[in-house]
TrEMBL record, chain A:
Biological process according to GO: tRNA threonylcarbamoyladenosine modification
Coiled coil: none
Keyword Nucleus: yes
Lineage: superkingdom: Eukaryota
Keywords: Nucleus, tRNA processing
The protein's name: EKC/KEOPS complex subunit CGI121
InterPro entries, per the entry: CGI121/TPRKB, CGI121/TPRKB_sf
SUPFAM superfamilies reported in the protein's UniProt record: PF0523-like (SSF143870)
Subcellular location, principal: nucleus
Family: Belongs to the CGI121/TPRKB family.
Origin species: Hydnum rufescens UP504
Pfam families (UniProt xref): CGI-121
Subcellular location: Nucleus
TrEMBL record, chain B:
Protein EC: 2.7.11.1
Top EC class of this enzyme: transferase
UniProt-recorded name of the protein: non-specific serine/threonine protein kinase
InterPro entries to which the protein is assigned, alphabetical: ABC1_dom, Bud32, Kinase-like_dom_sf, Prot_kinase_dom, Tyr_kinase_AS
Pfam families with a match to the protein in the record: ABC1 (PF03109)
Chain ranges of the Protein kinase domain: 9-237
Similarity field: Belongs to the protein kinase superfamily. BUD32 family.
Amino acid sequence: MQSATYTGLPRVHICFFTAVQNAAALRSRLIAAAGIDGTHGDVEREAVNFAFVDAASIVSHLHLRTAIYQALLAHSRGSLRTKTVHSEILFALNPSNNITEAIKRFGINDKTQALILVRVGNVDETVDGRAAGTLDDNAVFDRMKSLVQGRPINLEEGIEHATDWDMVKKIYKLPQISALRTCIQEVVVSSVAMKSVMS
Amino acid sequence: MSNSTLKLIESSKLIKQGAEAKIYVTTLHPNEPPILLKHRFSKKYRHAALDSSLTRARVAGEARAILRCLRSEVRVPGIRMVDAEEGVLGLELIDGKAVRQILPGGGDDDDGEFGVTHDEIMTLIGTEIAKMHLANVIHGDLTTSNMMLRRRPPNCHPPAEIVLIDFGLTSTSGLPEDKAVDLYVLERAFSSTHPDSEPLFQSVLNAYAAGSGKAWEAISRRLDEVRLRGRKRSMVG
Ligand SMILES: Nc1ncnc2c1ncn2[C@@H]1O[C@H](COP(=O)(O)OP(=O)(O)O)[C@@H](O)[C@H]1O
Ligand SMILES: [Mg+2]
């Protein structure tokens, strides 16, 4: 797992899981958590309080980081376009403003095998009596591991092997016969970085 | 300062102060190369609300022009972050040298480190601008400061490439007239910055002509007209 702090923004934890066995169960749990009332609901929502990103549509570490950064920026100035900073990451990844489409393309689905979990620390909230902004890195990692049945591996390496290039070309409207991967990566990263001023 | 982008700027290194923008180098992500921040600071004498919407529009315009170039495989810096509210554009940091610095009259700072001749550099410039114009991107401020020479990975041929920068005045147009004016601006920049550079600029045009195919004929005709207008204007003025 990687944890990083951005200037003036909350700490971010990222972990890549390969050979994921329980994608369908995780997805149902996510959907169910939204509908549970009371304290039990809060506990359950906190248990799944991550961005669940299907790694197939991610082209590089920088691609994911760029979406996270733009989501943190929107979060910090109170201009989220979606409900949480975690769903905002999925929104930031998608070229259109359709959140349902973003979740379908970039979120976990029943067939997900390579999964990235992202947790943004939130200074307002407390976990185990401490501000989540200072949430212990290992504690986050343990929670991720208890959630996902899969093997945590190095992020850069994981992304490199998981990318579905045909799907990426479709999502970002790149020609199917198109060029070098480095060119595709550059268009993709730059598109995500500039989404807020795209239209 | 309260917001995160301003904090980021505070922790960055100022490398250039222009009339419109301050340029910084900073690190955004762990394990990623440093980036460049272009901050269009607010002009105190302008109306505040107008100022911020103008700034936003210019950041947006520059980002869109860059993406358009990237999609056409024109070599330009990639975009790394945008905070239009603060007037900040984060770009891939190009590790190279401005063409201005390499040519005589501009700095004359060519120690052959790039392994290309001046004439080869002109060919690279002409080819890159032709690609940009084929995508109907009109740069708006072509000068030898707004293009950088960068080394390519080992065993590439040629060993260096041109990266176009500074899309602050960019527009889109398919008109030969607008492309001709873009070239004319560069021609003037060459002649005012680099003495005896006519043969060099001719090499730029040759490569541009080769790169733009059928489009060249109309652009060339327009370029002659634009030059004529320019000469008349300078005789009058
Ligand atoms: N992506 C970049 N990589 C490296 N240097 C850059 C980059 N962008 C700009 N610069 C440097 O900063 C200077 C000013 O940036 P520029 O975009 O041209 O703004 P201005 O509108 O102030 O001319 C450039 O002349 C160049 O030296
Ligand atoms: Mg400039």
